[in-house]
Structures are given as C-alpha cells and as structure tokens.
Design brief:
Number of helices of chain A: 14
CATH architecture of the largest domain in chain A: Roll
CATH topology of the largest domain in chain A: Ubiquitin-like (UB roll)
Shape of chain B: globular
Structural class of chain A: alpha/beta
Number of domains of chain A: 3
Strand content of chain A: 15-25%
Number of helices of chain B: 17
Order of helices and strands of chain B: EEHHHHHHHHHHHHHEEHHHH
Largest sheet of chain A: 6 strands, mixed
Distance between the termini of chain A: 55 Å
Number of strands of chain A: 17
Largest sheet of chain B: 2 strands, antiparallel
Oligomer: heterodimer
Structural class of chain B: mainly alpha
Strand content of chain B: under 5%
Number of strands of chain B: 4
Helix content of chain A: 25-40%
Radius of gyration of chain A: 21 Å
Strand order of the largest sheet of chain A: 1-14-13-17-15-16
Shape of chain A: globular
Helix content of chain B: 40-55%
Chain lengths: 445, 393
C-alpha cells in the first residue's frame, strides 16, 4: 500500500465523532476576527469601531503598504452587526493579535450581492484565482497558507499534479472525513476548479485506509472525471505534504524545497470545499467544519461554525466535562494547547480536542534507543537535535538539520525517555532565526 | 521545563458552566504519547529473561539464585546510593539497575564466591554507569564491564565454568566436581573444569605445545585435519546439549534455546532490531568456519582454512546472550539501523578473533565492549538520510 518511510501508528481515536453528521451551530452573539490567522502578511482593519457590517463584508485586508501583501488573505465578517471593538485578543495561535470584534444584530444579513450562484464552468484559471483571493481562502488543514498564492506558482515551475489531501492523519479529527461523506460532489467540483486554475494534468485524491467508506464515496463522485482516488496506509503523518506526495507519486520534494519543485500542489479537503463555495456561490470563507472531541466532552460532534465563534460556544454545545485538563486547537499530534476558552475559531481550526489527562511531562536523558530516528518521516536524527537543543548549541542544531523538521511530533510520541523534542525544536528554530536576523543586521551596518 | 500552568483567562463569575477547567495545562505538542517508556521497556526485557533464570536454577541449583540475588541487590542499592549522593532523583524503580544486576549474574558462573557478583555489580553501577552520568550516558555495557572487572581481579574464579550439578545426572559431567567455593582452584584446570569452548581451546593449545596425548603428530595437512577431528571427538560437546543448555557455563548463557526465545519476543516487540543478533551470530558462524585453525605438525604448523565448526561456535559460550541482550543495549549501541549492522558485524569479527587467536576462550564480552567504544564513531558516520536530500533535480 502507498506510504512513506518512518511515521508512527497511534490509535486513531476517531470513533467518538466519526458518525456524527455535520451540525450547523447558530451564529455567535459576538465574533472575534483576528487580523492574522496564518503565515503571511497580517491584515489591517478596513472598518472602524461603531461601523455596521454585514455578513461577507471585508473587514480586514492585507496591509497595502507591504510589498509582500500578495501573500495574505482577506478577512470577512462572519456575522452581521456592529464593530464593537478593534483591539488585541488572544487567538489559538498567538496570545495577542489585533482583532475586529463584531457584536451581532441578530439579523445575520448578507452583504450586497452575496451569495450569488453562477456556473463556474465559465471561469477561466485567472478568474478562479481571483475568486479564491476575494473569498480569503487559505489552506484549512492547519498552517493556513493563502490558497491563491499556492496555485500561482512562478512561471518557471510547471505544475502537472494536484493532490487532494484527504488523509486526515491526525488522530481524533473527523471534520474532513464528514465533508467527504456528506459533500463529495462539492469537493470534487472544488478540486477540479483548483486543477483548472493550475493547469494540472493529473488530479489525485489521497486518503487513508481507515476511511474506506469516504474513499468509496469519493470514487463514485469523481467517476469519469479523470481523478485518481487512492488509499494510503494508516500511518501518521500520512497527510504531511511531502509524505503524501511521495506515497502517491513517488516524487521526493528536495530538502528545504516546496512541493512545486516537483511539480505538485497539495490542497486540503476543507480548502477544496471553500474553493467551490467561492467559485460557484461567490461565498467568502466565513465558516468551517470543526470537530469537537476527546474524553473531556460529553457529546463529541462535527459542527459547521462561523469563524470568530469562541471555543466556549462549541464546548457549551458539546458539554465540557469536569476535570478537563487540556484544550487543544487542532489534533493531538500538532495541535496547540490553549490557556483559555475565549479564543475564536479561525480559518485553520480543524478541531477542538479536550483531554482529561495530560501527557507525562517528566523527561530523562536520551537512552539512544533510536526510535525517534526510525519514526522521523523526514529522515532526521531527533535524538541529536534534542541533545543540541539541550546544550543550547546553535551550530550543532543547524548541523543536524533542525530546519528540515516540520514538527509532526512522531519522535516525541515514541520517545521512551519522554523527551520534549518538539518543544526544543520550536525553541531552537526561533533561536536560529534570531541569530540570523542579528547577523544580517550586522552585515548591513 | 516544558510544563507551564496557565490560568484560564479572566473568569467571569456567573458566566459559563461551573465546571470550567482551571487551570488548563499548556504544553507543546504532541499531546499524545506512546505507552512505551523506560520502566516498561526495562521490566519487559527482564521478564523475557525469566525462562533463562528458571533454567539456570534448575541446572545449577539454588546457588545460582543466590548469586543472581546478590548481583541484583548490589546493583539496585549502588544505583540508589549514588543517586542520593549526586542529589538526583532515585530512579531504581525504572528497572534498569535491576536488569543490569541480573545481567551481571548472567555472565558469571553460579558458584563464584558472594563477593564476586557484588563487586561486579557495584563496579558496573557506580563506575561504569553513574560516574558517566547515569542511564543513557554510559559508554560501555555495565554488566559486561562488571564481568571484565572481576575477570581481571579473580580470573580463575570467573573463567572456569560451573560444572553440571549432580542432580542433573548428566553423563559426561559425572566425573567432574563442583568448584569449591571455600577453596577456589589456583589456576584454570581446563580439561576437567571448563566450559565447552574452553575445553576445546585448551586441548588444542596443549596439542600444539607438544602434549599430544593419544593423537599422532600430523605430517601433512590431511593428517592435521584428522588430528583436529580426533581432538573434537575427545573434547567436544554435543550440539543439542549446547543448544538446550545441558552444559556448563555462566548462569545465563547456557541455554541458547531459551535466550533465543526471549530474543524473538524482543524483536517482536520492536525493542531490538533483528539485524543485530542475526548479523552478530551470522558473522561468528561464517568467520569461525572460514578462518584458519593452526595445528602444529611434526615439522610444520598447518593452517586449516574453512574447517571450523560454525554450529558449535554459535551455540557455545555467551554468544546468544551477547547477541540478543548485550550488544542490543540501547545506550551503548549505535542509533541507526545502518550503524547497528556495522556494530553487529564488528562484534562477530572480534568475537571470532579473540576466541580463535586470543588468550581467552570466550570473546563475546570483550568484542562487545570494544564495539561499545567504537559506537560514538559509528554514530557519526552511519547517519539517517534526510528526506529529499538526494532527490534528483
């Protein structure tokens, strides 16, 4: 079966929410829309406190004075109402980000001209890209890279392959799985629109073998449309871009390179769905599917929620158990633990995982067992990285390829000495970044 | 520390459910961990040794149990004492000291005086392990260093294998007496009291020195081969006895079969990689068959190539114990599979060289210790390959 070298096999924990149909949650009384929800240039608010806004209206745009403003995405109002505040708020990714806070007027009224159904077959590649950019679509698997950038490769890079990442390899999460089961036709339409915008000859759907029902549904939905649907081995991180590309096509993205270096673009399930909404319905990205699960909630579920809805609202709907110890935005392997419930759902929030038991945090010296080396999907030696970080040796960190790590967490998952390797890697990368900035400053002066 | 307790932001009295969790634990991902941790691994490895322990008690009597108990208690007590002295958390419950102590006993004969396993365990824990920083920081396998230390101190006691117990009623053991604990023999009386490897090696050495006994001095290679066969006939041990453990030797090494079973469990649990024992044993089999054996003739010395006894070599001595339980020690062996392949082949090569051409009858212990020394160097060269680093274009 298609797969890659390395990886781990955690239990997938998808049972609690996999059979729960996507359930729309009512619009929140207050929506918090951070001006920076992902990589790229932060937005600046286009509204003022006290302004009246309607659903789908742009409230934040990439800073026009920034030369790299193309690498960013618009932020739209997800409810209608009044701008109550423009102030820094905590988000799932950062303790404080300038946010537009909208107080609902209860009308939930669309902005003028939205939504408007039209046949996307009339759109050419550039029009599709423009629609996607106008709708503020980003990669919704987590990192949130702006989609219109991803499908606008430099002209010298020929893209021949588009892959829909339907692996959803993170344990617990089922938001993509539910979309595949419930909206396969829309997904395929979105995927084909992306393929058209890219001019890709081959279009693949790569899923994992623990979602064979979704695999069948997608195969039926894409029948006769020139899409190859493949199931990969159930292994984390099967849905990591480079690993998925390798598993399906056998192409290896060079170290430090991007998928487009081997002529491939990978898009997430939720992203493809958002693309279809943008192109056919002219609907900006203002809602997404979020899985709420874990042993810390009474009723695990998959919700369709407006962006900006506080985590608290989703947890109230699912019933937060007493003794919840951890609240995680995303899955257990790469998700970010939250310090409070007042953070909003953002474009990259695929799930809220509530755990009653925290993982062990006491760690010991490396015993050189080599499990991390066997588990690393990037072929790194996390044991050496962890030792370099422990020693605060920046040169050694760089020498053992810390920058090739994408923090999937396999090494830390398997480590019998319970070493917090990912924690150190994040720290080490930040230190290397600081040093580089310092060196550049010195060179300049 | 990666742990950090952060209070949930601004609790509003009367707002939100009463069960709101506070404080939440905020740590870096991943938030999920495999079940395997150090204690689990150590105790599981110990459990796979239970059949060999039982067999040792059956073969050598309660004395073997006593020797094991002394070694284990000394190891655990030493580790605890040193961790106290170093003002470090006492981690003896993780099983690593227990396992090291048991392995110390496994590489000693059952009937050694009480101070031998005690000294070996104390040396192993205090000097070899804790002095270098404790679990994970030691360069050499503690149990084997313990053996090497007492071997240097009390060679006769350690080298002579323990004889077969009378209770076992083994036919070829009948004429032999148990090593007296009170008055250890002054020197190795190899022909009467040695392990199978030792017996054969000593006999060949005597033969080459001119004490030929009933065997005629060979005048050509053909006769040298005949002489070698005759010596093997006289001093050999049947293979099935070696394999099942009906033989003399150290406590833990006699039954290749039970160690093999334990080793299969370790491979199945993914605690060790199959390459390590297979290549170690395979290298010993191949080289002990191929490398020349010197037989002194009437006028010249004949070197007989490709005339070794591979099965005899792999089933005797501490090879299975070494290949499954010593060489595979995580701390002191290379990290990558590539490195472990090199390590295993090196161990096999050194074992055969020591056994055949060195002064000791058994080479597994020193072979592994020497390769332990080479481990940091192997780690430097046998590296994992970064994904996409050699991709074309």
């Amino acid at each position: 079966m298609n797969t890659f070298r390395g990886g781990v096999h955690p239990h997938d924990f998808k049972e609690p929410s996999r059979d729960k149909p996507i359930q729309p949650l009512p619009p929140p009384p207050q929506a918090v829309l951070p001006m920076s929800q992902h990589l790229g240039v932060p937005c600046v608010p286009t509204v003022k406190k006290g302004d009246t806004v309607r659903k789908g209206q742009v409230v934040g745009e990439p800073d026009p004075s920034n030369p790299r403003r193309f690498v960013s995405a618009l932020v739209h109002a997800s409810i209608s109402g009044k701008v109550a505040a423009i102030e820094p708020r905590p988000t799932p990714l950062s303790p404080s980000v300038l946010s537009v806070v909208i107080e609902s007027d209860g009308q939930d009224a669309w902005a003028d001209g939205l939504p408007a159904e039209s046949d996307p077959a009339t759109l050419d590649g550039n029009a599709i890209k423009a629609r996607i950019q106008a709708a503020g679509v980003v990669g919704m698997g987590g990192a949130g890279f702006p989609t219109h950038v991803k499908i606008s490769p430099p002209p010298e890079k020929k893209i021949d392959t588009l892959i829909l990442n339907a692996a959803e390899c993170e344990p617990y999460l089922t938001c993509d799985y539910r979309l595949m089961l419930e909206r396969p036709a829309e997904l395929v339409e979105g995927l084909l629109l992306l393929g058209k915008a890219l001019g890709a000859e081959d279009v693949w759907i790569g899923t994992e073998a623990n979602k064979l029902d979704a695999f069948e549904v997608l195969r039926k939905a894409s029948d006769g449309k020139g899409i190859r649907v493949e199931a990969c081995e159930v292994k984390y991180p099967q849905g990591a871009e480079k690993q998925l590309i390798y598993a399906l096509t056998g192409r290896k993205v060079p170290a430090g390179g991007l998928p487009l270096d081997v002529g491939v673009v990978v898009q997430n399930v939720a992203t493809a769905f958002a693309v279809r909404e943008a192109c056919r319905l002219n609907k900006p990205l203002i809602e997404r599917v979020v899985t709420v699960t874990g042993d810390g909630v009474e009723r695990p579920a998959n919700y369709l929620v407006r962006l900006g809805t506080p985590f608290r609202a989703l947890l109230d709907a699912s019933g937060l158990c007493e003794g919840a110890r951890k609240i995680i935005a995303g899955g257990p392997m790469m998700g970010i633990a939250q310090g409070g419930l007042d953070v909003p759902v953002v474009k990259g929030t695929s799930g809220i995982l509530v755990l009653r038991e925290a993982e062990p945090v006491e760690w010991r010296a490396c015993i050189s067992c080599g499990r991390c080396v066997d588990a690393c999907p990037m072929g790194l030696m996390p044991n050496e990285i962890s030792i370099a970080c422990e020693a605060r040796d920046l040169d050694m960190m760089a020498a053992v390829n810390i920058l090739d790590c994408f923090e999937c967490g396999c090494c830390t998952y398997v480590c019998p000495a319970r070493r917090p390797i990912v924690h150190w890697v994040k720290w080490g990368k930040a230190e290397l970044g600081k040093r580089k900035a310092q060196q550049q400053k010195q060179k300049a002066s | 520390m990666p742990e950090e307790d952060v209070s949930a932001s601004a609790p509003d009295p009367g707002d939100g459910p009463a069960s709101e969790p506070r404080p939440l634990l905020v740590t870096t991902s991943p938030h999920l961990r495999a079940r395997e941790d150090i204690p689990r691994i150590m105790w599981t490895v110990t459990a796979t040794l239970v059949p060999a322990v039982a067999w040792a008690v059956y073969v050598f009597g309660p004395r073997a149990l006593l020797t094991m108990a002394i070694a284990v208690v000394s190891a655990v007590a030493t580790e605890a004492a040193i961790q106290r002295l170093r003002r470090r958390p006492v981690t003896v419950s993780d099983g690593s000291a227990f396992l090291s102590g048991l392995l110390v006993a496994f590489v000693l004969p059952a009937h050694v005086p009480w101070y031998v396993p005690m000294t070996a365990s104390i040396f192993a824990m205090a000097i070899v392990k804790q002095l270098f920083g404790g679990l994970g920081c030691n360069v050499w396998n503690p149990a084997l260093m313990g053996r090497a230390f007492v071997l240097a101190a009390w060679a006769p006691l350690v080298v002579s294998g323990t004889d077969w117990p009378a209770a076992f009623g083994y036919r070829r053991g009948a004429q032999e007496q148990a090593v007296s604990v009170e008055a250890p023999p002054p020197a190795v009386d190899a022909t009467t009291r040695a392990t199978p490897l030792n017996k054969l090696k000593e006999r060949l050495r005597e033969f080459n020195a001119g004490r030929r006994g009933s065997v005629l001095a060979p005048r050509n290679a053909r006769e040298a081969w005949d002489a070698l066969c005759q010596i093997r006939e006289e001093e050999g041990t049947p293979l099935d006895d070696l394999y099942f453990g009906r033989t003399g030797g150290c406590i833990g090494e006699v039954s290749a079969c039970l160690l093999f079973l334990g080793g299969i469990v370790l491979v199945a649990l993914n605690y060790i990689k199959w390459q390590m024992p297979v290549l170690f044993v395979g290298t010993v089999a191949l080289l002990s068959w191929a490398l020349p054996i010197g037989v002194q003739g009437e006028t010249a010395k004949y070197y007989l190539w490709f005339s070794g006894q591979p099965l005899f070599e792999i089933f005797s001595g501490g090879l299975f114990l070494g290949a499954f339980y010593m060489a595979t020690d995580m701390v002191t062996s290379p990290v990558t599979t590539k490195g472990q392949v090199l390590f295993a082949i090196g161990c096999g090569l050194l074992t055969v060289l020591i056994r055949r051409y060195g002064g000791y009858p058994e080479g597994v212990c020193y072979a592994i210790l020497l390769m332990n020394t080479a481990t940091p160097m192997i780690n430097r060269y046998a590296r994992a390959r970064v994904f996409g680093q050699r991709a074309k274009k």
